[in-house]
Structures are given as structure tokens and as C-alpha cells.
From TrEMBL:
Residues 14-205 form the HDOD domain. The gene is dosC. Pfam families: GGDEF (PF00990), HDOD (PF08668). This is diguanylate cyclase. One of its GO terms (cellular component) is plasma membrane. It comes from Stieleria varia. It comes from the Bacteria. InterPro entries: Diguanylate_Cyclase (IPR050469), GGDEF_dom (IPR000160), HDOD (IPR013976), Nucleotide_cyclase (IPR029787), Rev_trsase/Diguanyl_cyclase (IPR043128). One of its GO terms (molecular function) is diguanylate cyclase activity. Keywords: Nucleotidyltransferase, Transferase. It catalyses: 2 GTP = 3',3'-c-di-GMP + 2 diphosphate. Its EC number is 2.7.7.65. SUPFAM superfamilies: HD-domain/PDEase-like, Nucleotide cyclase. Residues 346-480 form the GGDEF domain.
Length: 487
């Protein structure tokens, strides 16, 4: 076995599936499981039971009567489907305290699972096993990300999506790839051997009918979660669907709209961010609008931005301590970003974060410990922001995150995630192990409809002060569009 794979399997920081998932794995492999056995296992996890019942009552299932218990769910779904679905749902609670972004990982994996399920149904399958396989297709990334977070960060640099990372790229960085690692992890967790082998042997360059659904599922999942799709990306996805699965343009439209409907049901079960499109037609219209903007004048905009970027790179714009962009970068970038959002009627938000009682850390443990705290918080914020968002060290113990093209609930979720992640940090210094908290203020402007980015920042700063006065370790947020309208 590859030495690095062995290191991952022996790493105590790699999270194991929840105990209920372990018991469900036993049931999945048993052909003669009855309703009472399954009900007993599920009853040990009320949250999982509630999700399953909510699923049965959702439009995804379309039950004619209200489902109120697990036995009733069995009558609607069937015992085999419920076993696989229960296992899938329980796996998504697999988490650990590390810098790895589990929320983003499971959101992306759920999209792959939804796509694989819909593709399976088109092939005459139930879609249940395809859903589970899609969910764990990239599980090896958890092992590599928790074991070697810096290497994973390098691999995902420049905003790359997980689906853009090739086996060759992973082999060159890790000496193995996510599928080999994933297969071994599934073996360790006692998954059915056929499933573990399917993941372990998966190679996008050597496809069979089952792996074709998974590979195409990843492509469609990236399309489903994208916030800015180009016509070229959409055309490539349609070509892949036709080439790999003989799905023509009409079939692709039906498939994608089914994926959207399925995702809408799942996102409410797991509190994930909504997707940007309500149908393939809406996605196509946005892709055309994007292309039109480029053809009508983006050439000069790109040239201007290229010059500005070069000038920016020539200056010292990085905070040496945290490796985040500094206040000088904030002053240059954020005003331009705000104007871009305003011109294109895109919403924007600002989150101001301040470490609680930071002065006492310096006074009690020394400035070296204070530097360790700042570095840890900087890494934490960079890890927990969304792809494409920007995080700056504004000064001292204060940080600013600019959340681009977002809904109000999205910035609220990001701001809360920041504070939770900071509270969960265990900061190791030369002498002490420290726990800290932070406070924050957040502001959101619909379509950037506010006087200036300074207005947005100043109000967020006032909300930060309010959080401090009200006891710290909390976040206050406002829609400044509403406030501006009121005045």
C-alpha cells in the first residue's frame, strides 16, 4: 500500500462516520433486515429520523399522505431505498475540528450525488446506489485535506473547483489521488466491497457505464453549483452528456431541470446555500448575457484591470504576519469591486471581525503568542470564506471580509461560520494552548444600492461595536438597503 495512503488511514484526525452510519453499514450488507431493526437504529438519531421523514413529505417523493414515522417512511420508499438513503444522510454529518471546509465539501458532494441519482434513473436504475456513490466519490479528499491541508490549498489555488483537479495533478502533489484514498477509507469503514472498489478504481480517463455516470455527475454538479457559467462551459457539459450518455439537447434540459428540483428539496434538509439558477433556461439566459457583456466592451475593461493588477502586484499588498491582503490592498480593491457590483446590479456585503480581549493575550502571554493568534485567525477566515470572496487584515486584531455577489442569508451564514470556526480554534503557542473568541458586524446591500463602500463598512463597524458592548462572541447584521430607504 502507498505509504502516504497508510499515513492517512492511521491519522486519528480523520473523522469517522457517525455511529449510526456504522450501524447502517451493517444493515446495508444484510439481505434479511426487517423494519423493526432499521427503526431501532434510526431512533437512536432523532435528527436523522426527522430528515428522512421530511424527505418523504417533500415534493421529491410526492407522498399522497403525511408521513410521521420511520415505519410509514418504509411503506413509501421501500426498505432497501430507506437503508441507502439513511446511510447517505448520516454520512453528511461526518465532520472534525480542522481547517478542512466540510460544509463546502458536503455541498459539492451532494450536488454530485443528485446528478448521479438523476443519471441513474435515466438509465433505468433506482438511483439510490448512484446517489450514495456520488456522495462518497470524493471522500478521499477529506483524508488528504485533513492530513496535508497546505498541499490541498496549493492544489485548489486560483479558485479551482474540485472537479477541475486531475488525477495527474493529485499524484504529482500527494503521490496518490482522492479515489485511491477514498476506496481505502471506505474499506476501513466497512462499506460494501463493491462500492469501495468502484471508488478506488475510478479513473475519469477509463470509464465504464457506472463510472461514466459518476464522471458526468461531477461535470453536471459543477454546472449546478456555479454562480457564473459561460456559454463555453455549458456547451462542453452538453457535449459530454451526448458523448458519454447519449443525452441529446431535449434530454439534457429534462435532466438538468430534474436536478434543480431535487437540489431544491435537499438544500432545505441540510441548510445549504441556494443555487443561482431555477432552470436550464435561466442558466442559458445568464450565460448569454455574460457573453454579450464581454462582446460589448469587456476588452477595454480587461485591459484596464490587467494594468491595475500589475500595478497592485508591484506594491507591497500582503500582510507579512497573516499572509492575508492588508489595508492598502483593501483600499484599492474594495472600491473598484463595489463599483463593479453597482454597475452590474450585484449585491455585496462586508463583515468586520475583531478578536475579543486581544490586548490581554499580548499582556498575559507576550507578543509572540499574540502573533500566533493573529496567524491562526487569518488562516481560519481564509479557509471559511466562500471561493471568490476576499479577506483582509485591516489593522491590529481587526479583519474585514468582502462577500461578493451574495444573498442576505449567504452573508449571514458566512459571518456566523467565521465566529464558530474561531471559537473552535485550539491555538498552540510555544508555552500555552489558547482558546479565543471574536465579535463581528456585517452589512449587506442589495444590488450595491448604498451610497458608498465606506457607508457599508462604517455601519458594519458600528454593529461590531454593538456586539462588543453586548458581551462579545456574537454577530450583528443589517440590510443597509432597507436602512437607506427608511431614511
Amino acid at each position: 500500500m502507498n505509504q502516504y495512503v497508510q499515513e492517512i488511514l492511521q491519522n486519528d484526525r480523520i473523522p469517522s462516520p457517525p455511529s449510526v452510519a456504522i450501524r447502517l453499514l451493517d444493515l446495508v450488507s444484510q439481505p434479511d433486515v426487517n423494519v423493526d431493526e432499521l427503526t431501532k437504529v434510526l431512533s437512536a438519531d432523532p435528527r436523522l429520523s426527522a430528515r428522512l421523514i421530511a424527505y418523504c413529505n417533500s415534493p421529491m417523493v410526492g407522498s399522497k399522505r403525511k408521513i410521521a414515522s420511520v415505519p410509514q417512511a418504509v411503506m413509501v420508499l421501500g426498505l432497501r431505498t430507506l437503508r441507502l438513503l439513511s446511510l447517505s444522510f448520516s454520512l453528511m454529518d461526518t465532520q472534525s475540528k480542522s481547517d478542512f471546509d466540510f460544509d463546502d465539501f458536503w455541498r459539492s458532494s451532494l450536488a454530485t450525488a443528485v446528478a448521479a441519482k438523476c443519471l441513474g434513473r435515466r438509465s433505468g436504475q433506482s438511483g439510490d446506489e448512484e446517489f450514495l456513490l456520488g456522495l462518497v466519490l470524493n471522500i478521499g479528499m477529506v483524508g488528504m485535506g485533513v492530513t496535508s491541508p497546505q498541499k490541498l490549498t496549493e492544489l485548489l489555488a486560483d479558485g479551482k473547483a474540485m472537479s477541475e483537479i486531475t488525477i495527474e495533478m493529485e499524484n504529482s502533489v500527494f503521490g496518490t489521488n482522492r479515489f485511491e484514498v477514498g476506496g481505502k477509507l471506505l474499506e476501513k469503514w466497512n462499506f460494501p466491497s463493491a462500492m469501495a472498489q468502484t471508488i478506488g478504481d475510478f479513473n475519469p480517463e477509463q470509464l465504464n457505464p457506472e463510472s461514466t455516470r459518476l464522471a458526468l455527475g461531477q461535470t453536471l454538479a459543477a454546472l449546478l453549483l456555479s454562480t457564473d457559467v459561460s456559454e463555453a462551459q455549458l456547451a462542453q457539459a452538453k457535449t459530454d452528456a451526448l458523448t458519454l450518455a447519449q443525452i441529446d439537447d431535449v434530454g439534457f434540459r429534462e435532466l438538468f431541470d430534474e436536478m434543480v428540483a431535487q437540489w431544491t428539496g435537499y438544500e432545505s434538509l441540510f441548510n445549504f446555500d441556494s443555487i443561482a439558477y431555477g432552470s436550464l433556461q435561466e442558466l442559458e439566459e445568464r450565460a448569454k448575457d455574460s457573453m454579450m457583456k464581454i462582446s460589448l466592451g469587456m476588452d477595454s475593461e480587461i485591459q484596464r484591470m490587467t494594468i491595475e493588477r500589475k500595478e497592485l502586484e508591484e506594491r507591497v499588498m500582503i500582510d507579512v504576519l497573516t499572509n492575508l491582503k492588508n489595508r492598502a490592498a483593501y483600499n484599492i480593491e474594495v472600491s473598484a469591486a463595489f463599483e463593479h457590483h453597482r454597475r452590474n446590479q450585484m449585491s455585496i456585503g462586508v463583515v468586520v471581525i475583531d478578536i475579543d480581549h486581544f490586548k490581554s493575550v499580548n499582556d498575559t502571554y507576550g507578543h509572540a503568542a499574540g502573533d500566533d493568534v493573529l496567524r491562526a485567525v487569518g488562516r481560519c477566515l481564509a479557509t471559511n470564506c466562500r471561493k471568490g470572496d476576499s479577506v483582509y487584515r485591516y489593522g491590529g486584531e481587526e479583519f474585514v471580509a468582502v462577500i461578493h455577489n451574495c444573498e442576505f442569508n449567504s452573508i449571514k451564514a458566512v459571518a456566523n461560520r467565521f465566529l464558530t470556526a474561531i471559537q473552535d480554534l485550539q491555538i498552540e503557542t510555544d508555552v500555552h494552548s489558547l482558546k479565543i473568541t471574536a465579535s463581528s458586524g456585517a452589512c449587506w446591500a442589495d444590488k450595491a444600492n448604498v451610497q458608498s463602500v465606506e457607508t457599508l463598512f462604517n455601519h458594519a463597524d458600528k454593529l461590531l461595536y454593538k456586539a462588543k458592548v453586548n458581551g462579545r462572541n456574537q454577530m450583528f447584521i443589517d440590510d443597509v438597503t432597507t436602512l437607506s430607504a427608511a431614511t
